[in-house]
Write a structure and sequence with these properties.
By secondary structure, this protein is of the alpha/beta class. The chain has 12 helices and 12 strands. InterPro entries: HTH_LacI (IPR000843), LacI/GalR-like_sensor (IPR046335), Lambda_DNA-bd_dom_sf (IPR010982), Peripla_BP_I (IPR028082).
Length: 330
């Protein structure tokens, strides 16, 4: 079936009874068009089914309207939520996102994706550095366009703006909440090694424990429900006098596994043991029992990333910053 030809700007102008320059101003949101004229042009656009040719516009304006986003582990809650928030915020500003998930830690794959983005004339690049190797690749990159890296602390990557939700502060929040409830025997279920967020959450939780004179029992998970379940089974197998009375899990999925193991072994949450998660994923409110969790505002992070990039694109000099997490107590 032959596709109908896309109407031209000149045809829209003819139907609306205006110049093609006026049509261009309406399409690009210029305030220098009277409301009645704008409405006439928009009606002509709807009538003809006109679609703006982004490629042609890019040639004229030297602006592609594209932002490239690179991540690893896109199936995980944090990177997925950050990506969605960035895409929504970018779209609200008239930008589209190109997305690529690298599947290994090689610099070759990262460089290939970055080169593909630059071949598409992206105006900026975002790297969601969920793992340390991606952080290293971002530090070595010189894309020639504004670069934002989500994950590292401000100033950790030269020639890039580092933005994130303060993971260290989140780890502290979780421990301080439990200490405030009177807990002294606390276990920490950390995320995987070489995970940027996991290491920062771990550092914050350990610092809070040290500040309150708490000597935590430490476990290592891999973000999965299964690793939380195995840890929970190990905890309930401890002698009662050695068993922690509270656990901080580095994400909500591992917290879910912990609670499943505790329930299976007759250990009540929160009467026998308290659990705090991290992320405050939407389903956390429906866990049994509902989960207290450190909340990350990914929508605010997405808006911050896009606003920062647009500031750079327009010649500004924004500064790196961290958003403050909160604790949702249930």
């Amino acid at each position: 079936m032959r596709r109908a030809k896309n109407p031209t700007m000149a045809e829209v102008a003819a139907v609306a009874g205006v110049s093609h320059q006026t049509v261009s101003r309406v399409i690009n949101g210029s305030p220098e068009v009277r409301q009645a004229t704008r409405e006439r042009v928009e009606a002509a656009i709807d009538q003809l089914g006109y679609r703006r040719n982004r490629a042609a516009r890019a040639l004229v304006t030297n602006r592609s309207g594209l932002i490239g986003v690179i991540t690893v582990g896109a199936a995980l809650y944090g990177p997925t939520s950050a990506l969605t928030a960035i895409e929504e915020s970018a779209r609200s500003h008239g930008y589209l996102t190109l997305f690529a998930s690298v599947t290994d830690d090689s610099d070759t794959q990262f460089r290939s994706v970055l080169d593909d983005f630059l071949d598409h004339a992206v105006e900026a690049v975002v790297v969601i550095a969920a793992r340390e190797p991606l952080l290293d690749h971002a530090a070595a990159a010189t894309p020639g366009v504004p670069l934002v890296v989500i994950g590292p602390r401000p100033g950790q990557v030269a020639d890039a703006l580092c933005l994130n939700i303060d993971q260290d502060a989140g780890g502290r929040l979780a421990v301080e909440h439990l200490v405030g409830l009177g807990h002294r025997r606390v276990a920490l279920l950390h995320g995987p090694e070489r995970s940027v967020d996991a290491e920062q959450r771990q550092a914050g939780a350990l610092a809070a424990c040290a500040a309150h004179g708490v000597r935590p029992t430490e476990y290592r998970g891999d973000w999965s429900v299964g690793s939380g379940y195995l840890t929970g089974s190990s905890i309930v197998a401890l002698p009662a006098e050695d068993r922690p009375t509270a656990v901080v899990a580095a994400n909500d999925q591992m917290a879910l596994g912990l609670m499943a193991a505790f329930r299976e072994h007759g250990t009540d949450v929160p009467s026998d043991i308290s659990v705090v998660g991290f992320d405050d994923a939407p389903e956390a409110a429906y866990y049994s029992p509902p989960l207290t969790s450190v909340r990350q505002d990914f929508r605010a992070l997405g808006a911050l990333v896009v606003d920062t990039l647009l500031d750079c694109i327009r010649g500004g000099s924004p500064t790196p910053s961290l958003l403050t997490p909160t604790l949702t107590v249930r």
